[in-house]
Amino acid sequence: MGRLSERFPALYSHATAPGASVRSAVQGELPLVPRLTAQATTELSELQGIIQHVRLTEVSDSRICTLAGRDNVLRSSPVYHLAASALHDSDSLHYSFVWRNRAPPRVQFFGWLLVQERIQCKASLEKKGIVEDATWDICRRTAETADHLISQCSFVRQFWNMLKLDATSMKVAQIWQTARPDNVPSLHYDCFLLLCCWNIWKHRHDVVFRSMEPSLHRLLIACLDDARSWSCRLRREEKKVTESWCQIFPPCNTAEA
After folding, report:
1. Are 150 and 200 within 8 A, CB to CB?
2. How far is Cα 138 from Cα 154, in angstroms, rounded to an integer?
3. In angstroms, rounded to a whole number, what is the distance separating the alpha carbons of residues 196 and 207?
4. Reverse transcriptase zinc-binding domain spans which residues (predicted)?
5. pTM tops 0.85
6. b/e map of 18-38 (b: 16 or more CB within 10 Å)?
7. 205-238 pLDDT per residue, tens
8. Domain spans of the chain, in order of start
């Protein structure tokens, strides 16, 4: 049936108390202005016909939502999955890369924004009028776009090169297509990519908000720490994957950038 305000717009425009209860309407206490237009009169007649068949009880209302959890609390995850399936997007590559990734939830959310180029980089903030200068704080050569921040900056290129990963053609909108180097296990490679991008993003925050100098040494140590802590997110038989990741980040032999 839908909302009465949408079904009877003319009558709703004549209501003096739009938030009146159903009980008052059923009891004939419709809060309307004294004089109605012809259209509102017609709608009132139709509404009264509906009200005649409504029977109220003393039983408490029971609200059922298929998207709510067992505790009857609505959460965003099932809503997103429903919307994604409605758009035939649940099988898309970016959906699989982000939401079937073993990264922590907040990193998955970051990845979801990243692949859609919606992270709050300076180029995006400049378009919104939040900042006046979109120059990337690390290389100070060009605008801070999502692609430049993750793969095109000379500093970030050094990082990827140390991992033996060619970021020349890397694009955030299709980051899962980045060629995997031989030293990185194929299992959970998507998680490895998100781990690196997440730490580049955090390193950017250190430079922008904490006035810290860019440092490959510090960036690699952060990746190493996350590789160790994320091991608990993998199955026991998959622990060798994160052990391999830890061998890829060599902070002790890295000179300060």
Report:
1. yes
2. 9
3. 17
4. 93-160
5. no
6. eeeeeeebeeeebebeeebee
7. 999 999 999 999 999 999 999 999 999 999 989 9
8. 4-51, 64-100, 102-253
31-36, Cβ contacts within 8 angstroms, sequence gap of 24 or more: 36/11
The CA distances from residue 59 to 50, 53, 55, in Å, are: 21, 18, 12
Question: What is the per-residue pLDDT across 2-44, written as a single tens digit (0 to 9) for each?
Answer: 677 888 888 888 888 888 777 777 777 788 888 889 998 998 8
| The two three-digit tokens of residue 90, written as one number | 């649940």
CA dist., res. 131 & res. 148, Å (int): 18
CA distances from 25 to 50, 59, 61, 191, 217 (A): 11, 18, 17, 57, 70
Rg (CA), the chain: 28
Question: What is the spatial distance between Cα 130 and Cα 109, in angstroms, rounded to a whole number?
Answer: 22
CB 241 within 8 A of CB 102: no
What span, in angstroms and rounded, lies between the C-alpha atoms of 98 and 194?
Answer: 9
Give exposure, 109-146, as e/b (b: 16+ Cβ within 10 Å).
ebbbebbeeebebbbbebeeeeeeebebebbeeeebbb
